[in-house]
Structure formats: C-alpha cells, structure tokens
Design a protein that fits this description.
CATH architecture of the largest domain: 3-Layer(aba) Sandwich
CATH class of the largest domain: Alpha Beta
Structural class: alpha/beta
Radius of gyration: 30 Å
Distance between the termini: 67 Å
Number of helices: 19
Number of strands: 14
Shape: elongated
Strand order of the largest sheet: 2-1-5-7-8-9
Length: about 450
C-alpha cells in the first residue's frame, strides 16, 4: 500500500471514531434514527477501507478480516436499534471502540508501506546519471520503481518543435521500460520522481514535452528530485573566477521547482549554495538553511556506473573488434577521442581542421592504436540548428571517417563502455573528463594550436 492510501484509510478511521462519539450521544438521548444513520455511515467507511486494502494487499489480508468483524458488530447494533431493543449507549460505545482499535492496530502493524518511484530520463546516453539510484530503488522490496523514458524534440531557431525522438528501445536489457503514455501521473501520484533535464522551456536546441517540465511534474509528487546529467570540474567555494564560469549550471528552472538537488560532491554543494544565494541577493540565515536542506552533495551516479563496470563484462561489437584486434589476437591501445559541442561552435572551421589532423595522425598509426571517436550526442541537433553551414562541413568529415573504416565511430547511448574499454582519453574538455579521472587512466586535452 502506498503512503497516501494508508493516510486515506487512517483519515477514514478518524472520521469513524468521531461518529462513534455521536452515536453514543444519540443513543443516550433517544435519537435512534440519527444513531442508525451514523452507524450506516460507519459501516460504509469500514467497507471503503476494506475495499482499498483488498485492491492493494489482496482479499486474504488480516486487516480485511478485522474490518469484517467490525462491520458485523455495526450490523448487529443497527439491527437492535431498528428493532427498538434496549441498547446501552456506554456498552455500545466500548464495543465499537474495541473493534476499531483492532482495526487501527492491524492497519499500523500488518500493512507495509510501499513507495512508488519514477525515473524520467530522456536521452538514453544520459541514463547513467540515474541508473545507480534506480538500481537501489529496484532492489528495495518495499519500492516499486518505474523507468519511463520521455520523448524530446529538436527545436527550430524560432523555438518551435520539429522532429520528435524517443529512445526507449536504447536502454540496457536489464532495465524494464514503461511507456510514457501508459503511466497515469494524476492517478498514481508517485512518491518520488527523478529527472535529469533541468531546462524546461529554456533549452534552445531540444525540449521535452511541456508536461514533463519540472514546474509541471511538481503537481504529481511530493518529492521531485533533480540529478544533473553532467559532471563538472571540481571548483572550490572560494574560487570566484572558476565559479563565474560555471554558475549558469545553477541558474536552471529545475533547481527552483524541485524538492531536492543531488550534486557530485560536498564542495560542489557549497558552490551551488553560494551561487544561488548571490542570485537571490539574500544571504540571510533562513535562505542559507533553505538551500542547505535542498542541495545534497551525495555524489554522481555517473561515477557509480563507471566504477562498477568491468572491461570483461562489456559487450564489444564485432565490427569494433575488427579494428581493435591485432593479427595475433592481442589488442591495440584504444584511445577515446571526444569532441564537444562547445569546441565545435567556438572554433568552427579551425576545429574541423584540427579533427582532420587528428584522424590523419591516428590513421597513420592504426596498426598499433585504435581510435574510438565519440562525438557529443547532441552535436547534430545543436550545430545544425545554430550553424547550418558548419554542420554540412562537419557531416562530410563524419561520413569520410565512417566510410574509411579504420577507426571506431561510437554514436551509441553507452558512454561508460567507451570509458571502460579505452586505455587513454584524448579530446576536448567536458564532463567526461571528470568521469575519466576516476579510472586513473591517462588524459590529454587537445589544443587548437597543434595542427601540423
């Protein structure tokens, strides 16, 4: 039984208890008809509680049997009253109270509260920001956890929606998926909802449907939780210059609408609190206490995912193995090459030149090194929308790289596989660098100045 349902049953018992007092008074004063009507209301209340328990716990639940005893007593007292038998008010009250106390005790001790927790990822490649939390909820015998991937739209320059994407079929096989249009948020009112998309209508490249904006989801749960889909470079709370460069991550709608925000570390928690208090221009103790309670530095599930994945457990595609394996069966060194949206938009044609330089260098050494290129999954939607001509030139490079077939092109939703499989990282600075650091493997950030 869900906590809201148990609270509903407890509220009905309180109403029945109040009715018992009035029944006692009515019998004492000879208001037999009023007492009989109140007893009918009490019986209807008992039946309603029993029906709720049968629906959630099954017909054989012990509380149902206790309620049946209570309703049988109600029936007998009602029968005696309508037959004008002599009914003692105090004795009747005591009998009713004894039976109702048994109902209360059974409701308290025999019914286990179950939580219903919903996870609302949108891009499958970002699922790792929620997965370890889902796993904990799924393993809890008193919790029903639902993974409900939601669709998202690319946006036109004017903000209107264009193509819709739904990636529900891209999640790991061990994750049971519920369709977003088959879950009744209004009727079920989950105890917790987890999201990793914080932007609501303020993402200019993609958007989830307005129903799934944080400000709307808040209507359907008492505990809406936001976990960022990214990991930031750690910043000290006293480093004002570094904070200035990341404060926009704190100024997103979800931060203000949700009940809890889970960030990657205690230091990052302090940074968020500092930025939010400055945004509000309020450094009072009350405001600090509010953010202290709301922002939790519990760590990122993305790190949990990387550290919990072993190379031998990976499903490596056969076409990748053709590139990775040497003729003697041993493996080449695998370099994870990551290119970001930010670098492509910032450097434009210069970035394309850099990429071609990198590919030529690795192509020349393909006998010893396998390049695993994994561009940011939103590059197409972002660059095509903001810089159409740049996208055309970029897409030519992608097509050439894939057709030549000497390197791996990873456009799957599983970034953790690339991190665990590879021997070193090379590429742009991004949240993946913070994840990669946890592995202890080498990291090199590419420079636009080195192109020859």
């Amino acid at each position: 039984m869900r906590i809201a349902q148990k609270q509903q049953a407890e509220e009905l018992i309180k109403q029945i208890e109040e009715a018992h007092n009035q029944v006692k008074n009515d019998i004492s004063q000879g208001n037999i008809r009023s007492a009989a009507e109140l007893l009918e209301d009490c019986q209807n209340g008992g039946i309603a509680i029993g029906t709720l328990i049968e629906e959630t716990e099954g017909e054989k639940h012990p509380t149902v049997a206790v309620l049946e005893d209570y309703c049988e007593l109600i029936y007998q007292i009602h029968k005696d009253l309508t037959e004008l038998k002599d009914v003692n008010a105090n004795k009747t009250y005591k009998l009713l109270r004894q039976k109702l106390i048994r109902v209360q005790n059974s409701l308290k001790n025999d019914i286990v509260i179950r939580k219903e927790v919903v996870f609302l990822p949108y891009k499958a490649s970002m699922w790792d920001s929620l997965e370890s939390v889902w796993m904990a909820a799924d393993e809890d015998p008193a919790c029903d956890a639902y993974v409900i991937p939601i669709p998202y739209y690319d946006k036109n320059p004017d903000g209107s929606f264009k193509e819709m994407h739904y990636e529900g079929d891209l999640y790991p096989d061990y994750v049971p998926i519920t369709k977003y249009d088959e879950y009744d948020f209004e009727g079920r009112k989950p105890d917790m909802i987890f999201i990793h998309n914080p932007y609501d209508e303020y993402n200019f490249v993609t958007s989830v449907p307005p129903f799934f904006f944080s400000k709307n989801l808040k209507k359907y749960t008492s505990n809406l939780v936001y976990i960022p889909y990214f990991i930031l470079a750690e910043v000290r709370p006293e480093d004002d210059e570094a904070i200035e460069n990341m404060k926009h991550f704190c100024n997103v709608p979800a931060i203000f609408h949700v009940d809890k925000v889970i960030v990657q570390s205690e230091e990052m928690r302090q940074v968020y609190i500092k930025v939010l208090m400055e945004m509000m221009n309020d450094h009072s103790e009350a405001v600090r206490k509010y953010w202290d309670t709301k922002i939790l530095g519990l760590g990122s599930p993305k790190i949990d995912k990387v550290m919990g994945t072993q190379k031998e457990d990976l499903d490596v595609p056969q076409e990748w193995l053709k590139i990775i394996e040497k003729p003697d069966g041993s493996w080449k060194k695998i370099i994870f090459y990551n290119t970001s949206i930010t670098a492509l938009l910032r450097y434009g044609e210069e970035m394309l030149t850099k990429m071609e330089y990198v590919f030529n260098a690795f192509k020349a050494n393909q006998e010893e090194v396998a390049l695993l290129w994994r561009p940011h999954p939103l590059i197409k939607a972002t660059v095509e929308s903001m810089r159409p001509q740049l996208w055309i030139e970029y897409d030519k490079i992608v097509t050439k790289y894939r057709e030549e077939g000497w390197g791996i092109y990873d456009d799957t939703s599983d970034v953790d596989r690339a991190i665990v499989l590879s021997d070193a990282y090379y590429g742009d600075g991004s949240s993946i660098v913070q994840m990669y650091e946890q592995t202890g493997k080498p990291i090199m950030i590419q420079s636009m100045e080195v192109v020859e």
